[in-house]
Specification:
113 residues, alpha+beta, Alpha-Beta Plaits, globular
Length: 113
């Protein structure tokens, strides 16, 4: 079994007027389905009201993230699934619920983590 990150940046979620409540309902429903199927690990969204800080190896803290990297925002879910094909199917269902495409990535296994 592998863990898959299914995610989208905030800018990808463009919800037509009047549909936001339906998106919330549908996205919560698909997450409940992942839980019922036993594949849900965790999920949520980046709290964009709290700015990131960059913490160096010496403990120094600087406001903001990496200056050269794109902003990390949006929502994500981590699912533990037996195959990439199954992960694609779940990602498609999440995309339908959220009304936006989802990126699918696999986590590398680290036996020490």
């Amino acid at each position: 079994m592998a863990k898959y990150l299914i995610s989208f940046p905030s800018a990808a979620m463009v919800v037509p007027d009047g549909e936001f409540e339906a998106v919330v309902r549908d996205s919560h429903a698909i997450i409940e389905e992942t839980k019922a199927a036993g594949v849900y690990v965790f999920g949520g969204g980046i709290d964009e009201s709290v700015p990131p800080v960059l913490v160096a190896a010496d403990g120094a803290v600087a406001e903001g993230g990496y200056p050269w990297a794109p902003t990390l925002d949006g929502g994500f879910a981590v699912l533990e699934i037996s195959s990439r094909d199954e992960a694609v199917k779940w990602a498609a269902r999440i995309a339908k619920a959220c009304r936006c495409s989802q990126e699918l990535r696999v986590f590398g296994f680290d036996p020490q983590s």
